[in-house]
Design a protein that fits this description.
The protein is an alpha+beta fold and about 290 residues long. The chain has helices at about 10, 100-105, 120-135, 140-160, 175-185, 195-200, 205-215, 220-240, 245-250, 255-265, 270-280, and strands at about 5, 20-25, 30-35, 40-55, 55-60, 65-70, 75-90, 115-120, 165. The protein binds beta-L-rhamnopyranose and nickel (II) ion (NI).
């Protein structure tokens, strides 16, 4: 049996002196499962898709941020106008005396939290640094390589300052509504989410917010929430022994029959069938 696809350094870096490079994925196409000889920092700008990282599915959209280690295996599927930037780097080629591990989850630790969120203002800050970095990284001469490493340091520190965890309830007041909505949706998996209540709390127009969400992510709020719930259900089905009815509850479905109907419609088989397939190690069966 052949192992997973391995992406090699020399296919993505111009020389052995280059420590960092920027890959624009405008768009990111579906991409098969792979590991790397290098690490990645993934920033999602817009659209949506499914990111499966170490067998765990994440529905991704604007503002999501991932720290991928060389040995992490991941793939992209069900992409829909997914736009991201991939900052790839080789830890062994970094020469500056910076405590990288303080800013990059997973640089040394074995169980890092891989998924974070960036606020819109954080994204704007990051984008400025990435633009400069991209420019330097194209040149690959000694001074540009040094400059690129400095900019990479600036980038990881900038990001460390404005990232937050998805379940962080203490969302910054300044954060824009869309960010707040996405964070709130992700922490509303086990309960129902009422947009009207959210909007009256935030004093914003429901219609405008719906439209903004659609423009930026390429899907409706309800579609996104349903995908998040099903994704979480798939994770629990595969990795726990809980009963389907308990899983349904934890994913915000009070009625487990209704959960099965929605699940079957989205995934093409019932939760029980899906669990059996995944647990038999048939890795290629579909996520949504
Ligand atoms: C792919 C995808 C992968 C990355 C390679 C270099 O399009 O973004 O995650 O490892 O590029
Ligand atoms: Ni990758």
């Amino acid at each position: 049996m052949s192992g997973p696809l391995i992406l090699r350094k020399n296919a993505f870096f111009t020389s052995e002196n280059q420590a960092v490079a920027v890959l624009d994925r405008y768009p990111q196409h579906a991409f098969a499962e792979h590991i790397h000889e290098f690490c990645e920092l993934v920033l999602v700008w817009r659209g949506n898709g499914l990111h499966v990282l170490n067998d765990r599915p994440y529905r991704i959209t604007r503002g999501d941020l991932f720290y991928i280690r060389a040995e992490d295996k991941h793939s992209y599927a069900s992409v829909n106008d997914l736009v991201l930037q991939n900052i790839i780097y080789c830890p062994d080629r970094l020469k500056l005396n910076i405590d990288w591990a303080t800013y990059i989850p997973g640089f040394n630790d074995t169980h890092p939290i891989p998924r974070w969120r960036l606020s819109s203002s954080g994204m704007t800050n990051a984008r400025q640094v990435i633009t400069q970095l991209e420019h330097e990284a194209l040149k690959d001469d000694p001074i540009s390589n040094k400059m690129a490493e400095l900019l990479f340091a600036q980038l990881v520190i900038t990001i460390a300052r404005c990232r937050h965890l998805i379940d962080n309830k203490d969302v910054n007041e300044q954060e824009m509504l869309l960010d707040k909505l996405i964070t709130t949706l992700a922490s509303s998996l086990a309960s129902s989410f009422v947009l009207e209540a959210f909007c009256s709390q935030q004093q914003c127009s429901e219609r405008v917010l719906r439209q903004q969400f659609r423009d930026q992510t390429g899907m409706t709020i309800n579609q996104y929430l349903r995908q998040l719930r099903i994704c979480h259900a798939q994770y629990l089905l595969q990795h726990t022994r809980q009963m389907v009815s308990d899983i349904a509850m934890q994913c915000g479905f009070e009625d487990s029959n209704y959960f099965s109907v929605v699940f079957s419609r989205e995934v093409g088989m019932t939760p029980v069938q899906w669990r059996a397939l995944r647990q038999n190690g048939k890795k290629n069966e579909r996520y949504i």
